[in-house]
Amino acid sequence: MTNVVMVSPGFPLEMAYFTRALARTGVSVIGIGDQPVEALPAEARDHLAHYEHVSLADEGAVLAALHGLARHASIDQVECLWEPYMVLAARIRESFGLPGMTVEQTLPFRDKELMKQVLDAAGIRTPRHASTSTVQGVWEAAERIGYPLIIKPIAGAGSADTFRVDSAAELSDVLPMVRHVDVLSVEEFIEAEEFTYDTVCGGGDVVFENICWYRPRPLQARSHEWISPMTVALRDIDSDRLAEGRAMGRAVLQALGFQAGFTHMEWYRKDDGEVVFGEIGARPPGARTVDVMNYSTDGDLFRTWAEAVVGATPEPLVKAYNAASIFKRAEGSGHITRIEGLDGLLARYRDNVCVLDLLPVGAHRRDWRATLLSDGMIIVRHPELDALIELGDRFARDLRMHAG
Ligand SMILES: Nc1ncnc2c1ncn2[C@@H]1O[C@H](COP(=O)(O)OP(=O)(O)OP(=O)(O)O)[C@@H](O)[C@H]1O
Ligand SMILES: [Mg+2]
């Protein structure tokens, strides 16, 4: 039997569904993670053949635990879908001489500067960019790249410490706010609409493709609390307006030599039609977008991923719907006191609502800056894009949560 090590099999929660899907392909799954075994979600715990509770931050301890295990059972494959430990997973592979992504292949997915260097060499259009660890370096990069520009951490997530800078005066204001960041990426600001290109690959082939449209752009969504951000998984990914971005996505995977697993890329489409690369991770998109893609296909991408990585042939999925997640932020601070407009929306759109997951009255608000999930989310779907946007906008505008 094939033994597959799953790094962090129960955290974040979504990992548990991947773990279960992996086990259901017929392999034996060995979990290794930070969580005590009792804290593992049942979906993970019930499908693990064995679990090692080790600090994932301690590479030596991880390798020691797995080499200890390997005296009793062979270790054949290592999977990891949780971004912070992708390099660790690659080190485990190298330590056991296993196939799959090496450290060298993984680093361009983790380091935004290296990522763009590899893609530049392959002729992909990236924003003009530089990375630097000094204030002087930021000023030099700004001079060379020009304004407007964007400053962000080289290994950032969730738009943390990310700033648009329109002038030298603004740059002076922003620099003190990013002083704690070790290495900064300075980039040409791309004025454009923002999309994703997400895939599941197996054996070097793309077996599932998805494009999401962000409404509005993530940086805007994360700068204004009143916005209810929306991520729309598009049904018609064959449309002309997406063709170049999709082709770029394919070229990026090729340039990075990606073989098997989930990928999540972000790209920009300017008004003049030019497409520009944003970033890519060798993992699924976050904020429950796997669920959104599942509702757009009536598929099970946890299973598609698992089959793809064990070398089986996943059933092709058909996009039947446009599906969107909408994230809500309550007005006011403290505890949720009232939810307004929900009954009317449900009376009208009940058949379109796939998930309704709002914090209940009495719950304390979440930090909307720290988690896109904010105070709750809804997933809706509709075969027609115009109709989906209309109903999504209704949930964005007419559903109001209040806190106090
Ligand atoms: N060069 C750029 N031009 C215009 N906007 C940009 C640029 N770089 C980043 N942004 C904006 O900032 C957001 C966050 O940047 P990026 O995706 O690189 O970082 P991140 O923190 O990894 O984001 P996330 O984890 O939310 O995907 C982007 O989605 C985009 O809206
Ligand atoms: Mg991003």
TrEMBL record:
Start and end residues of each ATP-grasp domain: 116-310
Pfam families in the cross-refs: ATP-grasp
The keyword S-adenosyl-L-methionine belongs to this UniProt entry's keyword annotation: no
Signal peptide from the UniProt entry: none
Keywords for the protein's UniProt record, in alphabetical order: ATP-binding, Ligase, Nucleotide-binding, Purine biosynthesis
PANTHER family assigned: ATP-GRASP ENZYME FSQD, FUMIPYRROLE BIOSYNTHESIS PROTEIN C
Protein's name in the database: ATP-grasp domain-containing protein
Source organism per UniProt: Microlunatus ginsengisoli
